[in-house]
Each structure stands twice: as C-alpha cells, then as structure tokens.
Amino acid sequence: MGRLKMPPGIKAIEEEPEDYESCSEKATLACMINSEVAAVLAVMRRNVRWGGRYMSGDDQLEHSLIQSLKALRKQIFSWQNQWETVNPTLYLQPFLDVIRSDETGAPITGVALSSVYRILTLDVIDQNNANVEEAMHSVVDAVNSCRFEVTDPASEEVVLMKILQVLLACMKSKASVMLSNQHVCNIVNTCFRIVHQAGSKGELLQRIARHTMHELVRCIFSHLPEVDNTERALVNGGNKVKQEVTGPDNEYAFNSRQLENGNSGSEYDGQLSSGSFASNASGVPMAGMMDDSAIGAGKDAVPLDLHLMNEPYGVPCMVEIFHFFCTLLNALEHIGVGPRSNTIAFDEDVPLFALGLINSAIELGGPSIRSHPRLLGLIQDELFRNLMQFGLSASPLILSMVCSIVLNLYQHLRTELKLQLEAFFSCVILRLAQSKYGASYQQQEVAMEALVDFCRQKTFMVEMYANLDCDITCSNVFEDLANLLSKSAFPVNCPLSSMHILALDGLIAVIQGMAERIGNGSGSSEQAPVKLDEYTPFWMVKCDNYGDPNHWVPFVRRRKYIKRRLMIGADHFNRDPKKGLEFLQGTHLLPDKLDPQSVACFFRYTAGLDKNLVGDFLGNHDEFCVQVLHEFAGTFDFQDMNLDTALRLFLETFRLPGESQKIQRVLEAFSERYYEQSPQILANKDAALLLSYSLIMLNTDQHNVQVKKKMTEEDFIRNNRHINGGNDLPREFLSELYHSICKNEIRTTPEQGAGFPEMTPSRWIDLMHKSKKTAPFIVSDSRAYLDHDMFAIMSGPTIAAISVVFDHAEHEDVYQTCIDGFLAVAKISACHHLEDVLDDLVVSLCKFTTLLNPSSVEEPVLAFGDDSKARMATVTLARALIWAGGRPQKGSSSPEDEDTAVFCLELLIAITLNNRDRIVLLWQGVYEHIANIVQSTVMPCALVEKAVFGLLRICQRLLPYKENLADELLRSMQLVLKLDARVADAYCEQITQEVSRLVKANAAHIRSQMGWRTITSLLSITARHPEASEAGFDALLFIMSDGAHLLPANYVLCAEASRQFAESRVGQAERSVQSLDLMAGSVDCLARWAREAKEAMAEEDVAKMSLDIGEMWLKLVQGLRKVCLDQREEKDYRNMESTLILAMKLLSKVFLQLLHELSQLTNFCKLWLGVLSRMEKYTKVKVRGKKSEKLQELVPELLKNTLLVMKTKGVLMQRSALGGDSLWELTWLHVNNIAPSLQSEVFPDQEQEQLKQADEKTGTSIPSEAVVAKVAGTAG
C-alpha cells in the first residue's frame, strides 16, 4: 500500500537483559533526560512569570508546565522496565507542552526544542519502542504547531533554526518509518514556510533553511527504491489518480488561486511573527496543498486518499511533495513580490531552489520512479513543461540546473520520455547553442556544455538516431546535433576559443563512442541496402520486437529510408504537387491508385511540405480532395482538448485558404472530428462548426491591425447566442475562449520549414497526446548496429572540423584531442569500409607532416623532432594507413548522373559570371555547391574539373570589381588545396596556369595576408611538380622581381615560396639560383620600407614597423640557411660543390664579423665546436665518389684565417695548464683532424712549451673520449 518496508532483522520487543551494563545504560539515559528537564526549568525560572506561584482558590499551585516537568524528574529514576518498553510520549510530552504553549518566550521554546533534538539523536527511540508511532506523531504535531512570544529578532531566528533541526532529526531517526504520509507532508510544509519567511531574516537562517529542505528531500526520496509495490494504492484510487496523472490543470489552478486569494508573503510574515506554526497556516502554495482540501479533490477518492495519507509514509507523500515542487515553478509567474514579502529574487533564486530540490528527488528516486505512475506522470507532463519554459531563461544558472535535471532524467527514465527529450533538444538546446536565435554567449556556452555532457553518454547519439531520426513523425535530432557540433568547432574569422574546443570535445566523444563499439561484437557492417518493392502504408510500419536487435535494426533502417524518400517527395511536391505524388507512387510510398488515407497521411507526417500548397489541396472542392481533407482531420487526436487548442493544432499543419468556401470545407472537417472526440458541452457538430467560425472571426478581429474597432467580450457572447442546438453556451465557457484568443493569436499562416519552433501550450498538449501512441523507446547496447549509417552522415564535417582546430591549435592537450579524433575516424572508416572518408583523412593528415620532401640532411629531421604537431600527424597517418590496408575502392556514379551534374554546374557558373552585381546573393550557395563537389571527389572527372576551373574563372573575373568580396573569393581558392591527391596531380599544370593569369591580372587587388597566403600556397605546391613548376615560378617571378608586388603582408610568404623553388629538384639548377636571387633581391624592399617608415611615420609606428621588418629579415635569413643546408642528389653534385663553397665562405665571414658578440655568450664553446664540426664534415664530402679537392683546399685556409683572428682578439689562448682549459683542448682536437700542421703555424711558441711540459710530466691530461663525444655531439 505504498509504505516503507520494515528493515530486516528488527524484533518487536527485545528480551529483557539483566546484566549490569543494561542497568548502567538505563541510569545514564535517565540522567541525560534529567539534565534536559533541569535546563528547561532553569530558563523558565529566570522569567518573572514562571518564577512565582499562581493562586487558585485558597491553594497555591505551580503552573501546569512546571508541574509536568517536575513530575517527569520524579518518574525517570523509578522506572523499572527497559527503555524499549517505556512509552516515549511519557518523557517527551512535558517538553512538547512547552513547545506548544503560546505563553512561553522564544528562549524557553528554544531550550525545549534543543532537549527534544538531543533525545531524538540519542537513538533511544526506534521501531521497537512501545507506542513509538504515537510519540513520533506527537513530536511532529507539536513542532509544526510551535508557538512562542517574540522578544527580539535574534531569538526568533534561533527558534526557527531549532525547529528545522528537530524536524530533520525526526526524518533521520530510525523511527521515521512510523510517520504517516500526512506528517511527512506537514514536515516539508513547515520547513518550506521557514524558507519563505527566512527571506526577510538573516543570511544564516536562509542558508540553514534551504540546506534543511534539501536534506529532507534527500532523506524522503532515498527510500523510494525500498517502497512496496503501490499499484493498488494508486491505481485503485479511482478518479483522483486518473485525473491528476492525465489532466492536472485543475490542481495548478487550485494552487495558483491560493496565491491570488490573499495568501501573500506579507500576511504570512505577520502570521509567523507571532510565533505561530499552526498546521492551518497557508502562506505559500505548499501550505494549502497538503491539507485535507487539497488531498480530497476527487469525490470518489476522498475516503481512500485520507486513508492513504494516514498510513506509514511512502509514495503518496512523495507524490504530493514532488507535485508541490512542480507547482512552485508554475506559480512563479502569478506571485506578486512586494518589498517586504521576500528578499529572494523570484526571477532566479526561487526557480533555482525548486529545481535543485527536484534534481535531488530525481537523483535519489532514479529508475524506481518508473514503477509509480503518478510520479512518472508528473515528470512527463508538468515537470518537463516547466523545464522547457525555464530552459529558455536568460539566467545561465537556471539553464545549467535544467540541463542537469534532463541529463538525470535521460539516465534513469529515457524510455518513458521519448518525445519530451526530442522537444527539449529541438526547442531549447538547438535554439540556445546558436547565436542566430538571439541567445547570449553565456546561454550558448551552458547549452553547449550540456550537449557535450549528453554526447559523453556512450549510447546517447545512437538512441537519438534510432528513436527520432528514424521516426517519420520526429525531427532529425542526431543530424541537427552533429551539424551543430561540427559548425561550432570551426573558428570563422576569429581565433580558436574555448567554445570551439568544447564543441570539438562533443564531436570527438561521439566518434570515440563509435570506435569503442567496433570491437564489441557488432552486427554486420555491410548491411544490405533498403528497398521498397511494393506499397505498404508507411505510417503503419511496426516492429515485432523492439527489444531484439535482429528485429529493430532492420526496422529503423527501413524507416529511415522511408523518411529520406518522403523528404525528396516533399521537395518534388513543393515544385509540382502532381509530380510529387507521382514520384512517391514510383517509390512505392503511395499506392498506384491514390487513396485519400495515404495522401492525408503524407500531408500529416511529412516535414518540409509547403503549407500553402497543402492548404489549397485540402480546401479544393474536388471530391477526392474533400475525402483527403476528412481523412486528414481523422489523423488528429482531440480527446479532452479545448476547442481553441484543437483549432490551433489543426491550423498549424497547413495554411488556411483565403476563399470562404474553402474555409468552410476545412472547418466542417475539423468540427466533425472535434465533436466526435470531445463533444463536452456542444450539442452537435453544427455547434462546433459555428463556434469555430466565430473563433476565426474573433482572431482576425483582434489581431488584424486594419480592424480599428475591436470586438468586446459582450459582443462575442452575443454573437454566439442560440448556436448550441437552439440553446446558449455557458457564459464562462465563451468568456474563456474569448480571452484565450485575445491573449494568444491563432496563426492562420504557420511557419514554413522545420526550424526549431518554440513550445507553445497547444503544441505541448499535442505532444502529450502523441506520447501515449508513439513507438516504444529503443535502448541501444554497446554494439555498432547503426554506426555505419550515422558515421556516413557526420564524417565529412567531422574531419573538416578536427583538421581546422588541429591547424589553429597551439597547446599540446588540444593536439592530443584532435589526434584522438583522427584515430577514431580512421578506425571507424576502415572497419566500415568507408574508403572515401579514409582518403579525406589521409589527405588532411599529410598537410600537417613536415616529411613530404624526402631529404637526408639532418636539420629538417631535427626540426621534425622538435615539432610535436608534425610527429603526431605522422604517427596518426601511419596508423590510419595500416587500418586502411587492403580495403577495396568504391565504384563511381553512373555517366548519366555525371553529365547532368556537369551541365547544371556549367549553367550555375555562367549565371554567376553574368550577375556580378548580385554576386552577394549568389555567392554562398555557389561556393557551397562547388565545395561539396571538390571535397567529395576522389578521382579525376569532368565534374570536378568544371568545378575547379569554374571557381578560378569566377575569382579571376570578379576580383577587380568586388573589393568587398576579395577575401571571400581568395579564401574560396583554398578548395583547390583540398583536392584529392589524384585529382590535383591530374590538373595541376592547368590550375597553375590559371592561378598565374589571376596573379598577373589582379596582383594590385590582393591586399590581405590571408589572400596572399592562399596564392603562395598554390604556387609553392607546384615547385615539386614537373609540369606545373614552370608556370608557378613564372607567377612568383612576376610578384618578386624588383619588388614590384612585394608588400609587408606577403613578404614572408613569398620568401618561403622562393625557398621552396630553390630547394626543388624539378627543373634546371638555374631556377634554384634564380630563386635565391629573388630572395637576395628582396632585401632592397626591406631597406626601402625602413627608410619610408622613418620619413613618414610617427616614432611609435616606426618602432613597430622596425620590429616587423626585423621579423621579415629573420625569416629571410632562416630560409637562406635552410637552402644552404639543402643536399642534392648525385646528378647535382657539381652544383652542390659550388654551393658548399659559398656556404663555407659565408659561414666563416659571418662568424668572424660577429666574433666579439659571440665570444661573450655562455654557450660560445658549443657554437665554436659546431663550426669546427661542420668544417671537418665538408672536408670529407664526396662528389661522384671522390673527395672534393676545392673543399679540401678551401677549408684549411678558412680555418687558419679564423684561428689567427681569434688569436689576435684574445678569444683563443691557453689560459691554464694542460687539462684545465676545455676550449683550447677541444679546438685542437678538431683542428688536428682537419689540418694537423695548423697549430704549429698559428701558435709556433706554444708547441715548444707543450713539448717541454710533456717531457717533465708523463701523465698529460687528455680529454676523455666520453667528454669529447658529448660536447661534439651537442655542438653537431
């Protein structure tokens, strides 16, 4: 009957022990109670009223409160029985009398409450005590009706805190299971009243009251899993239960009325300020909700409900408490907050408090809520409706709490909340996470954090896809959420932010979940394509077993196929209704001979239809259209629905035609259906029709700005006289309809498209009706049943998003996140045979490695070792290729499809070129279409050729005319960089020629660094292409010759491109030399810019320009250094020899010029040894198998000159005895390997001195091999 189970192992009465310990314990407890009595008496005697005696006739008597306390002192030490057999009321009653008395002051009441609290916490009272139920009820009743005289605010707050303390102790006591449902409700009622009053008290009382409320909720709802089956207690409750589960509007109205009827905060405060906690005080909604009047709402349920509320507590009190929390959210909009009523900010604090209590109840109730229909009904309807409302709150705190509650509900009750979850994501998360709907940044961030939390639930996206995306009556939540995450991860014209990383985390969490499911014994990844061989009514497709994957997996895939075909059919219908229906007949979604029901269901359940066309079709006078109209109306469920709500739902699905005859036909069909399901007080369907017409007219009158004189309520009532079978409709009924229409317009022109609409009351009612008939919620396990289909939808945007973030990232943890995503994509693609996705991934990874140019020179290798991004990308690429090994290639599309696509693309490009003045309107769509072709093509074909060269033509033609679009046009050319390697190789020469023409014609119009980066990237790629390099270098020559088009914005980029051509093995060596000349000649531009800056700019600007020029100089020198270290293949060794000679001369010259500054550095020794190591290496270089004679002659000469300068400047000299000067010793160790005679030539006197010392001391200190190797290795 909904009560708590008795914990096992508890006996009714313990056997009486007779040992010494028991007697000692009894005496101890007696002493404790005696101390409490003494404390209360001591405080009472301090008051004059209680210190004297009272006269009663001729006798002098003490007050009854003091008499009862003294009588207790006499009895406690004389009780012979065990404490378990003593009625707790005997030693609690004197204290409870003090608490109840309105003659005692706050200090006395506070001490009495403390005494009761201490007795409760002694664990003396439990289920085994005699008459424990009576005692617990007495305590709760006494505390709830606590009365005291208020002497000062501080003492009042102390008493209130002690009341909270005692009530919480009652609930935490072992004997709490003996409390009745009514007493638990009263406890929560009293605590909430204190929370309410605490708003005008101190901060400490406010916090303690709220904390106590939370603890009470946790204590109560933590017992829900232990509650006995409550089916009889709730289901047999008759009309009351049914009414509250299915139609709780009356209860909401009841609670709202209480607030409006004078139970405001000021009255409540006045009542509490007198110290009264009588049970009939009703200052807030809770107070009245839990009294008898609220419990006995249904006639047949009154006796049974009263009986339930007096039983040991269980589900009934939890339902009442949870209902109150929901009602508190409802009541917020009706509460008028006065200056003294409460300091709580009702726009944020009260919802947060109520939502926090609800969250605690759901956390502790968990899956057990599913077993109790009334609790579940409250969550499905009232709670979720409030969550939808508060989810759109401007407060990030409220939104965060709402999202936490929904996450808990998803974890515990998602099988019961299918449509509610769809509404939450469509109307809250997807609206708030995008700035275009007006959400603040804080709202977007909280919504995105909540979405990422959901994505981290391994089966969340799978269940959204299976239950919503694959249901023709639901929106594509999975697809919308995946698109949102991928778009939110893209940094568009802004640096990488925390929002981008957050969205990426959600995206990667989804694909990592897919990757983890691969090894869990998934179903076949190569599932047969879905086909419809014959017509079956698509709205009646059912699954035999929603719990068996062998049944539901093919079922949802078939349903998704139908949904996609319906969307295509809708597109055809919007262009030509007749051809649209013919298309659906051809795909077996409509019968060969159309019947009204199938067409009506197509209109009713297909998203994306043009509602104007649907309205025209339904209003047509053709007999078939009229039949479709009546079938269409028959798809609606108007059961127990108000007329205006039903009319709103009906007219949301199409646009009401303008002709009066069509309107009449539509309203006749509606009225017939409405009267059939919800006659209510209407006499016949004609009454429904007349009243519907009247509502449409009232709607037009009230909401059309052209109507100046508006219809009054009396006019409306008068217009509807005698329409109900010759009688009048009730005035209240018509008045309610009038105000509903005036307040909320019926939109006869509904919104087109799917979008993310707001949740209106009528839509919510419709959702609740649909939730009773919707297909069961499919719970997915850890196997990859639908991952192939899901990943095919999100793979492209996912790879692009990860690549962009990886490119922009600067922190190691972001690198690792992206790499985890790349690996997950590779694993999924390989295991599900998605070769196109693998190709895209490999191309993306190749861009991030630094090993595209094979070279044996060690500096690039060392640079690779220092570049963590390049290393990560290379390792990931290798693992992706291993996974992809042996996968077959996919077939191409049919030639007919390709010819059609090419024709359409040529037409699109022609339109674009001929509408350059309207390019802003066209460009986004043109770019996205070309991008789709470029990014989805993996082999050369006519379509991608037309797309690439069409894009280049558009850019070339429009750049001179559209300066405001220059950056957009140049950015679009980055699509060329994203071409598949095979496609790029096939068209590289022609692409380069087009880019060269574009540069020569429009160099003056390219001003931004981003634009030049695109151009130079395209040119740099051609440096290693045999056919394209000539045209690419020609364009670079045009830009850099004589600094014609060099700018600070493109200087570094052009210098880097020149280096690429200088290092290229393609073409003659003269081109490499010419590239070096371009780099060297560019120095003149730097000098010119520096002079111009000094002449024309302010001092601060000159300093900034100097820094920029310094950076450019540094990049140029670094590029030259890399070229100097570039090693050619043997066929170029003759050129390499001269290059090395020039490099050695340059090295020696720079070293000597900077010798003074370098010698001051702490690491000069390492630098000097590096120079010696380089010289030693170049003396051993072989050209065509022989050592270079020129280098063998040049290096000793340069070395000797360097040593003489170092000797002259005092840099190289022996500063201590042998073995104590590492620079000196290591220098000659290397020099002797190059030219042994140099030491005697440079230091002739020093050699004689060394020989003399060697003769005197045989233990000459020579640097150990280990030291030499370490220093030399570091220098190298």
TrEMBL record:
Tell me the CDD domains matching this sequence.
Sec7 (cd00171)
Membrane topology qualifier: Peripheral membrane protein
Protein's recorded name: SEC7 domain-containing protein
TM segments?
none
Entry's localization field: Cytoplasm, Cytosol; Endomembrane system
* Alphabetized InterPro entries for the sequence: ARM-type_fold, GBF1-like_TPR, Mon2/Sec7/BIG1-like_HUS, Sec7_C_sf, Sec7_dom, Sec7_dom_sf
Q: What is the lineage of its organism?
A: Eukaryota, Viridiplantae, Streptophyta, Embryophyta, Tracheophyta
The answer, when asked if Membrane is one of the entry's keywords, is: yes
